[in-house]
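Deviation from plan, reported transparently: glycyl-adenosine-5'-phosphate complex.
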Amino acid sequence: MNASAVNVTLDEIAALAKRRGFIFPSSEIYGGIGGFFDYGPLGSILKRNVKNAWWREIVELRDDVVGFDSSIVMHPNTWVASGHVAVFHDKLVDCRNCKHRFRADHLASLAKCPNCGMTGTLTEPRDFNLMMSTRVGPAEDSASLAYLRPETAQGMFVNFKNVYQSSRKRPPFGIAQIGKSFRNEITPGNFTFRQREFEQAELEYFVPDDGHDLETYERWVAERTRWYSNYGVRADRLRACELTAAERPHYAKAGTDVEYLFPWGWGELESIAHRGTYDLDAHMKLSGKDLRYFDEAAKTHFTPILIESSAGMDRTTLTMLIDAYDLETIASEDGKTSQRVVLRFHPKIAPVQVGVFPLARNKPDLVERARGIERALRPHARTQYDEGNVGQLYRRQDEIGTPYCVMVDFQTLDDGAVTVRDRDSMRQERVGESALRGWLAERL
Ligand code: GAP
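Because the crystal trials were delayed, the predicted structure below was used instead.
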């Protein structure tokens, strides 16, 4: 399958995201700022659901992983030890004519500027460090220089000893966190795919060197790939690509990228890597502190091997939007056809799970009943009350991906039953008001 098979363009997704309140360009009234985005009322819930689904599976449903939340600004030596100060670079090329900047590896040739078309105006590629810097405290000297973390992982490495001692865990065990990371990308783009501020969900899983490390790595590759499928991501748009020795860092014994087929082609959602003891060794060397695990029973120290899974929460949220998108042609009973946009979100991911409406907004009995039903369902599902033209109500809920809509009509006042419409099949079913909560719980 290739990108032409994806049934929606990025422009269509960006327009829908803005129209329905999923994602807006940051500080748009001032013209926006490249590589930064804001999540609207529905987008913030969608992203939270994605993060909760990750956290639930990685932390809450396991007894061998503990949660963590480290600071964004860390001691600058963290980034010296990790190698980010020395090698976290992209090659940058400037056009002397139009002042546009490019990543050298994104250019077919250095002969001609792809923006202004002038030949001979591109500079030689030079290293550009992707870390964003800031100043800590009132002094403006070099000692105050600090960085916004480009990954959340290092916070977990430098705290390895604090965590295993306080939580009484012994390898194999993992530390997990979700948080913001910052990279001064030369060319942010493809909507929220490549941003300068983004959120990562990272799992650092430490194992003893007992010969089972590759097995554990393979288990995580399988588990993490399955996670996307569990939330409905289409199988033909998902793949796990094993990295060759040339593609991965010299210290990594194995690596796999989980990729999704975006409208412009395959793109990385997550990287899973066998990193050996590289990270803990580097921090021990620079800090002079012993981060090895002390095995009480054997009275020996050892440095555990690290298996890392690092997923982008903005890329996963974007994937959920693109993957759920469908433009469906529907035929009515009189033979006429029309089209509807529907987001077929997994019910656990959908920002609104149940829409509740009265058949007519000017009938107080219906309005009161519908509001009461929505209020009663609210503690048990993500609900939304709305009123207006029935066709438009369904159209709006389809476009935001609401799996079920509950309609309160005149018959409800007589028999206490409501009409429930299924987003995907558009089939309608009468359900007694007293059975409604259970009916929905079974399906959500
Ligand atoms: N600690 C390992 C690490 O950070 P990475 O492959 O550089 O690995 C992991 O990043 C994930 O973070 C990526 O697979 C991607 O989903 C997300 N990510 C990285 N850079 C990003 C960016 N500029 N915008 C949005 N997401 C990004």
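The CA atoms of residues 239 and 259 lie 5 Å apart. We consider this an acceptable substitute for the interim report.
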